[in-house]
Write a structure and sequence with these properties.
Blueprint lengths: L2 H13 L1 H7 L4 H22 L7 H25 L4 H8 L2 H11 L7 H18 L1 H5 L5 H20 L8 H22 L9 H26 L4 H8 L1 H13 L6 H25 L1
Helix pairs in contact: 1-11, 1-13, 2-11, 3-4, 3-10, 3-11, 4-9, 4-10, 5-9, 5-13, 6-9, 7-14, 12-14
Length: 285
């Protein structure tokens, strides 16, 4: 497949995720579990048949721990989706690159450069517009916004943990163990919270199946495929478009609308995130 076409297909696939979560009449964390588990269930036979399970102990640990963090990211993001609009929730989870830069600076003492900080402040300014100046002053936050920010932080941790592992093992091998770790983690949470796991309507099962096959399996396989051929910076910036596409699906399928301040804030946040990627591009040059 053409790498650019593969990337476009992947972005469209993952943009349906918040729509499926909102349409599924199931607990948010249960939806997250089935998203990962169904994808793993369909990937496992291929990995076994093609003998793609070989992995050393260190990479296995990274894949499993990364899976747990990814599971936490999906769980918290799904919780945010039942509290706020699909567009805003998806937008805020895309703040992960900003967290990565901040954590790299604070923990690894890695110099981030001027453009990263410019992009970060632009994104923060957009957040202030999005949330509302008075709400920030009075510490009045919608819990859905908080969940989305926590989800973006988890995804940043996931990126830092799994960075570089695909240089040592194949994509499908990594996804097999990564999704296995995420599935077990989310199942344990569902059981501990006594969440319903079986008795759903046909429409809910179709949504769960769509999440697993379209969003998780096809979406991330096509995106990872494109990363083998396209510049990572360009792929990262292109992935921001999922917010716009998810917003379109939300208007079409969920009848969601955004206020002017939400639209303006969203555009500014996206611009800020894009600037942080451009900074990374300048480093690679």
């Amino acid at each position: 497949m053409n790498p650019k076409a593969s990337l476009i297909i992947g972005i469209i696939c993952i943009s349906f995720s918040p729509i499926f979560v909102k349409l599924a009449v199931a607990p948010p964390i249960t939806s997250g579990f089935y998203r990962i588990f169904i994808a793993w269930l369909f990937l496992a036979p291929y990995c076994i048949y093609k003998k793609q399970l070989k992995i050393n102990r260190k990479d296995l640990l990274v894949a499993l721990v990364g899976g747990v963090v990814f599971g936490a990211d999906i769980a918290v993001w799904n919780l945010s989706l039942v509290k706020i609009s699909a567009t805003i929730s998806t937008l805020l989870t895309n703040l992960a690159p900003v967290w990565v830069g901040l954590l790299s600076f604070l923990i690894l003492r890695k110099r981030s450069g001027v453009l990263f900080w410019v992009g970060t402040w632009i994104a923060i300014f957009g957040m202030i517009i999005l949330v509302g100046y008075n709400n920030i002053l009075h510490l009045q936050f919608n819990i859905g916004l908080v969940y989305a920010l926590i989800a973006s932080f988890f995804y940043a941790i996931y990126i830092m943990i799994t960075k570089g592992i695909l240089r040592r093992i194949t994509t499908v091998t990594f996804m097999f163990y990564n999704m296995l770790g995420a599935s077990v983690f989310l199942l344990l949470i569902c059981v501990s919270q006594h969440n319903e796991l079986i008795h759903f309507s046909t429409s809910t099962w179709l949504c769960l199946l769509g999440m697993g096959l379209i969003c998780q399996l096809v979406g991330w396989i096509t995106i990872n495929y494109s990363l083998n051929y396209l510049e990572a910076t360009k792929v990262s910036i292109a992935l921001l478009s999922q917010t716009v596409i998810a917003g379109f699906w939300a208007m079409l399928f969920l009848n969601e609308t955004l206020a002017f301040k939400e639209i303006a804030g969203s555009i500014i946040v996206l611009a800020g995130i894009a600037v942080t990627f451009l900074k990374r591009k300048s480093l690679s040059n």
